[in-house]
Write a structure and sequence with these properties.
transmembrane helix; membrane
């Protein structure tokens, strides 16, 4: 534990550029995943209903 006012190594905070990269990466993977799950559920309900 470091005393107040002592600089840390910065491991707990990411620079803004890296944060933007992480957000973009999650969206790049997450949006198609959510769309695919939506389509899967939609088609599965059609399969098991009249």
């Amino acid at each position: 534990m470091t005393p107040a006012g002592t600089p840390t190594d910065g491991a707990d905070t990411a620079p803004p550029r890296r944060t933007a990269l992480a957000v973009t990466s999650w969206l790049w993977v997450g949006l198609p995943l959510v769309y695919g799950l939506y389509e899967l559920i939609s088609k599965a309900t059609q399969l098991f209903t009249d």
